[in-house]
Amino acid sequence: MQKLQAQLRDIDGKGYKGYKSLQGTYQFQSFKLAIDYVQGDPFASPSKIRIIVPERQFSIKKDWYKSKMRKIYTEDVIARHVGRAIRKNNESIRGSGKSGLLTIDAPGQEILERTAVTIDGEQTTICLSVGLPANGRRINGKEAEKLFFKVLPNILTQSLFAMKEKDIESFVQLADQQEVIREKMRENNWVAFVADGAILPRESGISNRPLKKAVPFKSPEENRVSIDIPYRDEPLTGMALSKGITVIVGGGYHGKSTLLNAIERGVYHHVQGDGREYVLTDPDAVKVRAEDGRKVSHVNISPFINNLPHGEDTNEFSTENASGSTSQATNVMEALEVGASTLLIDEDTSATNFMIRDQRMQELVVKEKEPITPFIDKITRLRVEHDVSTILVMGGSGDYFDAADQVIMLDEYIPFNVTTKAKDIASQFPSQRKDLSESFGAISNRRFLPYSLDTRKGKKSKVQAKGLSKIIMGTTDIDLQQVEQLVDTSQTRMIAQIIHYLEQKGWLKSETSLTELLNQIEKQIDSRGLASFTSRPNEHPGEIARPRRFEIAATLNRLRTAQVQI
Ligand code: ADP
Ligand code: MG
Questions:
Q1: ipTM for the predicted complex
Q2: Which of 291, 368, 484, 495 fits a 20 to 30 Å CA distance from 52?
Q3: How far does the centroid of ligand 2 lie from the alpha carbon of residue 221, in Å?
Q4: Which fold has domain 285-428?
Q5: Residue nearest ligand 1's atom 16 by CA
Q6: Which residues touch 193 (CB under 8 Å, ≥6 apart)?
Q7: Does the pTM of the predicted model rise above 0.95?
Q8: CA of 214 to the centre of ligand 1 (A)
Q9: Cα dihedral: 422, 427, 432, 435 (round 10)
Q10: Where are the domains of the chain?
């Protein structure tokens, strides 16, 4: 402690690079400070520090990390508390550039495995970023001293050291509850569960917080199930959607997309108070949408698209600029390739000609002249041959009634099971569509070749996330705007790290399929942690959180530089 103070006084007013000499660890009264990385100037990305608090200063019950999920939740809630305390204290240090600013990678509405906080039997480690204080481009040692010796200890006093057992208990209990619901879902082959009372709509298009004054969810009687979950007197009731084909209908603005969005996000777990904490979905559910303009690399889209004009091969389809229907076909096939077991589709983000084709159009444009086999002709095959379920929002066409196992209608945000009525209507007004369904067709199993990843930028190798939906790899951009289940910028940063790692370690090989590659990545995350993909696995590894395999695959699939073999 004295040492750091002396050093700061010594470098005060000197050139900013002088801060580099601080790299190292320092013992404080109740914690150890590790200064892992020091920024080169006040405007560069901030310095990385860790606060390491020993067990005797902050004791973690064994119970809080006895399962992986409980451990993640304990780490998550600590990060939230530290985040709140930082926000309260951030005004106190000033300087030029981003200097003086402290941040933690605080979680949002989802609870994800992340590196912000880690606990083990011996200590709690908190990873922070800090802009080391500057005056212009000179070291402001006085402010730095205040930062390390006043603000940091203050933050700990107000967060970690102020935490009560119940703060953590409520989080790990939620973990247990969600785990029990998931178990029930597996046992009963439910692909989605939405609890009664859940709040599905969000505050706005740019806010992930619950809408105030929303109509709470109320399950249709036919789908209502009741689950005994721990730490609750009453069983939890709600709507279960079984495996198979679910069509969600209803008038415009009655809440169809809102329900589907909640189901989409249900692959992750949400915090208490989010409104969706008991909305859970098959973790391998993938939203598929149209995404015109995207790059496609050697994907077999022939189950949906054939006989393109100019005789383009759709067994191994590539384009720099996909159309609405080819992009949606690609998104379906890519999801299947890496193991999606449920597809989620919304008419609002679909290509009409990919989804439906009515009798009149079948008559006018004969099959030989129509490259597209619409999804409606494949949906049943997909379920029967590949055991893949679909949850589909479709307010605009009743043609899906025939294929549906169940039809849910939203009426002023309240769902009703209208399967019987829909089936009656289907037999009363038989669709004159020709049934053109044949076997589903082959799913690609592609291999990404080593040259796919060109991370060079000048002499350096660089892969960097820019916000939630963009990664810059070397000199090319990867656009993830339409990858809707990527939900946290720390996931994007993790994917950038993974890409860098794959390239550095030569993990892309002509004999390794994409599926095997993803398995390897997941295995390493499970066994060695997220940080093992970074260049500082034993220090502050950066602000990263766990992405799903589907979003990692989505990134590789959108590489403009991909080299692929099938
Ligand atoms: P649809 O897809 O059926 O056209 P949306 O899901 O887009 O309808 O919902 C329309 C509007 O209603 C949105 O602004 C949404 O936030 C709001 N909304 C959806 N569900 C609810 C609810 N349960 N309570 C209050 N407002 C809701
Ligand atoms: Mg809609």
A1: 0.99
A2: 495
A3: 24
A4: Rossmann fold (3.40.50)
A5: 201
A6: 181, 184, 185, 225, 227, 238, 239, 240, 241, 266, 278, 279, 280, 281
A7: yes
A8: 9
A9: 80
A10: 2-163, 285-428, 447-565
